[in-house]
From TrEMBL:
InterPro entries: Aromatic_deC, PyrdxlP-dep_de-COase, PyrdxlP-dep_Trfase, PyrdxlP-dep_Trfase_major, PyrdxlP-dep_Trfase_small, Pyridoxal-P_BS. One of its GO terms (molecular function) is carboxy-lyase activity. Belongs to the group II decarboxylase family. The keyword Transferase applies. The modification N6-(pyridoxal phosphate)lysine is found at K287. It comes from Aestuariibaculum suncheonense. PROSITE patterns: DDC_GAD_HDC_YDC. SUPFAM superfamilies: PLP-dependent transferases. This is Aminotransferase class V-fold PLP-dependent enzyme. Its cofactor is pyridoxal 5'-phosphate.
Length: 457
């Protein structure tokens, strides 16, 4: 389709130059959004019958549009769950895009899927799940959670046909990520929330199950534990929950979308004891495994069950399933058919750097949280809400109202200095507004933390 075209070569070089510039910058602007009207006034009409030309459009991106984003890899962007993709992974993301690999079936994507599976084997090994456990890369934690919950539900219905017309029920805690509730809605499943944002203990789960009505107990098919809550980095009692799930014949899903990377860190790995007993696990490489967006992963103890739930049938798809196409077909294990081989950038970066580098980078995030915790304890005007957990720190500025936190966040962001957002923490019956750090980027320095805390004085 493409003839050699000098204009195209020039554009390619311009794009590469821009990308090299972006990934070699020590510090790029923190960025801030603009209103639609402002952006429209700056760039005007861009989609026209004749096209505005590559150079012109690219300049609009460089001058105006790129600046209206808040990139998550800034070392003082500590809001939500930031990210910090490796240069190697970013570069290979370009190769992934340029290679046009349809990552659904081995027949079309063998080379790319081979690489993904090598990376996946390593991720599975971190969980300690038994021989035979395996997974696929997804667009993120949300679709990984959905894929796992649907697999659990289909398995529950297959095992007992009386469940066919019954609405399923799962138990999780209010510390679980919003996507668990959102995906339960997609799959038309009810959610019973254990009322704790702190560690979900086996005893609380036991009491919750015992408190269900006989009908509810009949509808209950799975428990979702969290391996590192998004808000506070709390790891549930995975070991105890796994035992109860085994006794009660319930599917045990662990959502470690954010926290999963911490399985690499010797200092905190013990908190995840029991994760190897899960039926399914979600881990997002685009959070704490330094992959570019978007890249999630779902792992199953028995992948065959996921295949029974997700394998798509269609006469035009049969060719991929014939003898000659034998191999691993990622589409069979999650909700997507056509998919980018989104684990490919992670594979290249892992292969290039080795897993020790990943371990060090994750440990640094944990260490930064400990360092921040110490600074907060030593400050006369600050206070920890709870001990730092994984790479999350919740803390309060003594005497501040919720509005003070909001003003402070916007002030620091407006100055282009930092993005640190407040959150809420459950205290008894109410919610307290507090400040929160989440560390991912190993380039964040102690001085960065110190400077941010100083702006609260
Ligand atoms: C971020 C997160 C998710 C959602 O993942 P996406 O990749 O944003 O879809 C799910 N669960 C937990 C615990 C998370 O931290």
């Amino acid at each position: 389709m493409h003839k050699i075209d000098m204009g195209l070569i020039e554009m390619t070089l311009d794009v590469m130059k821009y990308v090299i510039g972006r990934v070699s910058e020590v510090e790029h602007p923190i960025g801030k959004p603009k209103k639609y009207e402002e952006l429209k006034a700056l760039v005007g009409e861009t989609i026209t019958e004749k096209g505005v030309g590559g150079e012109y459009a690219f300049n609009l991106w460089k001058e105006h549009l790129s600046k209206a984003n808040v990139p998550v890899d800034h070392p003082r962007n500590l809001a939500f769950v930031p990210a910090s993709p490796t240069r190697a992974a970013i570069m290979f993301d370009l190769i992934t895009a340029a290679s046009s690999i349809h990552g659904a079936y081995w027949m079309e994507g063998a080379g790319g899927i081979f690489c993904e599976n090598e990376a996946m084997k390593w991720i599975v090994s971190l969980t300690g799940m038994p021989e035979g456990a395996f997974g696929v890369f997804t667009s993120g934690g949300t679709s990984a959670n959905l894929s796992a919950i649907v697999t659990a539900r289909e398995n529950w219905r297959t095992n007992d046909p009386s469940h066919k017309g019954q609405k399923g029920l799962i138990i999780t805690s209010i510390g679980a990520h919003s996507s668990v509730k959102a995906m339960a809605k997609v799959a038309d499943i009810d959610v019973h929330l254990v009322d704790t944002e702190d560690r979900l203990e086996a005893s609380a789960l036991r009491a919750t199950i015992d408190g269900l009505s006989p009908i509810e107990r009949e509808r209950l098919f799975a428990v979702v534990g969290t391996g590192g809550t998004t808000n506070a980095g709390i790891v549930d009692d995975l070991d105890g929950i796994a035992d109860i799930c085994a006794e009660e014949n319930l599917w045990f899903h662990v959502d470690a979308a954010y926290g999963g990377g911490a399985l690499l860190a010797d200092s905190v790995k013990h908190l995840f004891k029991g994760i190897g007993k899960a039926d399914s696990v979600t881990i997002d490489p685009h959070k704490w495994l330094f992959s570019p967006y978007d890249c999630g992963a779902v792992i199953y103890k028995e992948p065959e069950l996921a295949k029974q739930a997700h394998s798509q049938q269609g006469s035009y798809l049969d060719i991929f399933k014939d003898e000659g196409a034998h191999g691993f077909n990622p589409t069979d294990y999650q909700i997507q058919l056509t998919r980018r081989v989104r684990g490919l950038p992670l594979w290249f970066s892992l292969a290039m750097h080795g897993t020790d580098k990943y371990k060090e980078a994750v440990e640094r995030g944990v260490e930064l949280a400990q360092i921040a915790g110490k600074m907060i304890e030593e400050s006369p005007y600050l206070e920890l809400v709870r001990e730092p957990s994984l790479s999350c720190v919740l803390y309060r500025r003594k005497g501040w109202s919720p509005q003070d936190y909001t003003d402070w966040t916007f002030e620091n962001h407006k100055k282009g200095f930092a993005l640190v957002a407040p959150t809420k923490w459950k205290t008894g019956d109410g919610f307290e507004t507090v400040s929160r750090f989440c560390f991912i980027n190993p380039d964040t320095t102690e001085r960065d933390i110190e400077m941010i805390l100083e702006t609260m004085a």
